[in-house]
Design goal:
By secondary structure, the chain is of the alpha/beta class. The chain has seven helices and nine strands. Helix 6 (211-220) links the parallel strand 7 (199-200) and strand 8 (228-229). The chain is globular, with a radius of gyration of 18 Å. The structure holds nicotinamide-adenine-dinucleotide. Nicotinamide-adenine-dinucleotide binds next to helix 1.
């Protein structure tokens, strides 16, 4: 990795925004963690390409010359390529990609899974980030490197925080992140996974939960202290996307208030 090492600033110096002159794509930016991330990146000086399939959510983001909305379905290759092309055409480069868009699966165990739920959850949560990274990496390499932050879940590390499709997609996303980190790290691209616990957002279980899946999840709940605010996860994503995290590559970082520590 050939990234800038951030040194402590003298207290008398003016604080420089942490993502000044950086160009970032944030998917799922219309709601929850993605919206908090897009707003925070914008506040910290980034030029942001905000991607979501729901235009109404994107319309609530700050509207100025450093924020560009793209209505897109991340599970479609052409849409991911369009998002990257928008970053390069509009802002001239791409420094960061945050794959935040994701869906859940009604906590369905394997015995209750339909092909449709399996394929949809895998398409959005795992194929989507792969397509976005495949489109983004050549653009990042042209600029000398970049950062990818993939939002997995504690459901990507443990078996009872989601249904079978969600668990498989989020475990798979951690593996995909590590492969990108190991493969492209020497060329200046860092890839990191974030594993939130419960976060207070608009995400729903995607319909009626499976009683068996809900029972398994509920068994873990006594150890869960609370739900995070979306901003608490966005703050971690900001750190990881910034040069302050220059030596963090290939890690899966848990932010769950201690839920899985107990
Ligand atoms: N909320 C939690 O408790 C929690 C916990 C762990 C991990 N996560 C993960 O965090 C991420 C964000 O979740 P959130 O809680 O902010 O949910 P959210 O529902 O508030 O936001 C998700 C956003 O993704 C968008 N989206 C969904 N499918 C899309 C697609 N195919 N193309 C483009 N946009 C799409 C939605 O429109 C929505 O705006 C997800 O990957 C989720 O799995 C959430």
């Amino acid at each position: 990795m050939t990234q800038t090492i951030v040194r402590p600033t003298d207290a008398a110096e003016v604080r420089v925004p942490r993502l000044q002159n950086k160009v970032a794509i944030v998917t799922g930016a219309g709601s929850g963690i993605g919206r908090a991330t897009a707003e925070l990146f914008h506040r910290e000086g980034a030029m942001v390409v905000a991607v979501d399939q729901v235009a109404a959510g994107l319309a609530q983001l700050p509207a100025d010359e450093r924020m560009q909305s793209v209505v897109a379905d991340v599970s479609r290759r052409a849409d991911d390529e369009r998002a990257v092309a928008t970053a390069v055409d509009r802002f001239g480069r791409l420094d960061a990609l945050c794959n935040v868009a994701g869906i859940v699966d009604r906590l369905l165990p394997v015995g209750e899974l339909t092909d449709e739920v399996w394929e949809h959850v895998l398409a959005v949560n795992l194929t989507g980030p792969m397509l976005a990274m495949r489109a983004a990496i050549p653009a990042m390499l042209l600029g000398g490197g970049g950062v990818i932050v993939n939002i997995s879940s504690i459901g990507g590390l443990f078996g009872a925080r989601g249904g079978a499709a969600y668990a498989a997609s989020k475990h798979g996303l951690i593996g995909l992140t590590k492969n990108v980190a190991a493969t492209y790290g020497r060329e200046g691209i860092r890839a990191v996974a974030v594993c939130p616990g419960a976060v207070d957002t608009g995400i729903s279980l995607g319909g009626d939960p499976s009683p068996r899946g809900l029972e398994a999840l509920n068994a873990t709940l006594p150890a869960n202290p609370r739900a995070a605010a979306a901003l608490e996860i966005a703050n971690l994503i900001l750190f990881l996307a910034s040069d302050e995290a220059s030596f963090v590559n290939g890690a899966a970082i848990v932010a769950d208030g201690g839920w899985t520590a107990a």
